[in-house]
Amino acid sequence: MPRLVSHPDEVKIVTRRFGMGAANIDRYIELGGYESAKKCLEKGPDWIIDEMKASNLRGRGGAGFPAGLKWSFVPKQSAKPKYVLVNGDESEPGTCKDHLIFLHDPHAVIEGTIIAGLAIGAKTGFIYLRGEYRYLLKIMEKAVADAYEKGFLGKNIFGTGTEFQIVTQTGAGAYEVGEESALMESLEGKRGVPRIKPPFPAVVGLYGGPTVINNAETIATVPHVISMGAAAYAAVGSARNGGTRLFSVSGHVERPGVYELPMGYNLKKIIYDVAGGVRGGRKLKAVVPGGSSTPVLLPEEIENLGMDFDQVGKAGSMLGSAGVVVIDDQTCMVEFALRTISFYQHESCGWCIPCREGTDWLKKSLTRFHAGFGEAKDIDNIQYLAENILGRTFCPLGDAAAMPTIAFVKKFRKEFEDHLNGKPCPFAKHVELAVV
Amino acid sequence: MSAETMTLFSPRLAARFDALVEKYPVRRSALIPMLLYAQDEVGYLSDAVIAEVAERIGITELDVRNVASYYSMLRFKPAGKFNIQVCTNISCMLRGAYEVYERFQQELGIGHKGVTLDGLFSLEEVECIGACCWGPAIQVNYDFVDEIKPELVPGIVDGYRGRAHEATEASDA
To answer: How does pLDDT run across A224-277, given as a tens digit for each residue?
Structure first.
């Protein structure tokens, strides 16, 4: 079972029940569970959406779109059934927070899904987990079955006459399916390629019906927003960034782990205080702040950097999925760039040419370059290729490949140059990376 | 052929399938889970499995193949009884995943997507499996094994070798 970590600066809201046996429904109820859903049944959709808006809860999948606003886009009247879709495809390298939510607090996901359903007037919610999370799917399936047993799901939830059903679904291995429209395609039994937008899912989504899609962390946060009250939740975070965030801190730190910290918490403190500093007392070279698709930051860029969507955006990167990947001074950034782009090349669904061909060429160029066969012009060419993927694809995967690549070249140009003229990689361990 | 007379699926899998298709507004939504569950039981997506899934869903075999080829966990050839999947993505790489992967290659004498002669093990270098804070991490079938060091590899392999005669645990209980 994955190791749980703790730090005094943590504000445990979403992780409050971790390690307390809350996967058991009776225990969950004992710990205050399902009270938020009952409250929402009393208060009604408008109140829920107002609370969600006031909470400043922003999408935890990476884009940071305000959840309450997203819910308010769903039309009240719809000829087609409406749906809630929970995105548990967690695949952004550096991110493993939903893993712990499904493991320790599956009922929070169910309760959040019920509340989202009440808010938009949906009768069905789908909870989609990546295929690799089979043991977590079993935990979710058990939790859903228990909730049916108690009458918290079904045709008459909590005895109120309201209907709400939940269906769990497994993926079968695909990063791209974490993109909302590709996720809907996958749930409809198709290849996970993105749909053109507009129409947005709130209007035409799953099975053609209005659909709200939220990340599992967002959904698991919802019951806490209701129980704490929107104002109290918002007050925990920074301006326009309500509450806490589950930071997956990985890589070269002494104490990697998932830490729940208030939005706006300083990145330098995350690395040096919370996660115990760079492993072995080495120097920090760089940090990827929000999952592998977010542009890398240099030590001097994180001095006063508060980790919320707006501040990280202003610093030229993104908070993304809050996967903080810490890189020490013994790491070859060309190799790191190559491994990053190899992932996007592998995961590109092939639908749009700039992404399909661009990631392939980037991988080829970087492989050659890292192996010592690069030419000076390749450095600019890599940047040029990435810049020409940017903004030219249906879905954000193209950008996810391009943005970090541009940052690697711009911020570590010297390291690229050190690989020129047949010089061996100064850090070389794996000159030829295996092709995945 | 009729699915009732020529089924490849165990009664449990067939029942699961029948329950699954009822859960969605469209039957086809059961396709991806069904392919994975069938693979868990049969070992891979053989022509016969594809034909049966196509018939049960009510779509063409070509359509099934088109979808199946998209998903990296679905395979068209048998894997080992224990499929060792080593994540080498960035978080795991920084903590030595390639050293772990190389050690598995040496220990098993196979490379990426290789299968040992006795059919017991297969090896795969895989993308992020969502265990970044506990890396380097691997999955053996669906089991996660966290915080692996190269020197732990022989013990892991031996541990699974000792379970060679157990019923295939990949099939989902």
So the answer is: 999 999 999 999 999 999 999 999 999 999 999 999 999 999 999 999 999 999
Question: Which residues form the domain of A268?
Answer: 244-328
User: What DSSP letter does each residue of A334-372 carry, written as one string?
Assistant: HHHHHHHHHHHHHH--S-SHHHHHHHHHHHHHHHHIIII
With both helix axes pointing from N to C terminus, report the angle between A376-389 and A353-368 in degrees, rounded to the nearest 10: 160
ipTM of the complex: 0.95
Model pTM greater than 0.90?
A: yes
- Residue identified by tokens 């772990």 is B100
Q: Extract the tokens encoding B17.
A: 């399938």
Residue of chain A minimizing CA distance to B74: A172
Q: Which of B63, B83, B90 is the mutation pick for testing A, counting most A CBs within 10 A? A: B90
Q: Identify whether A427 is part of a domain.
A: no
Could you report the per-residue pLDDT of A106-155, keeping only the tens digit for each? 999 999 999 999 999 999 999 999 999 999 999 999 999 999 999 999 99
Spell out which residues of chain B touch residue A288, defining contact as CB-CB under 8 Å: 90
B82-161: CATH, from 3.40.30.10, 3.80.30.20, 3.40.50.620, 3.40.50.2300 = 3.40.30.10
Report which of B135, B142, B146 is spatially closest to residue A248, judged by C-alpha positions. Answer: B135
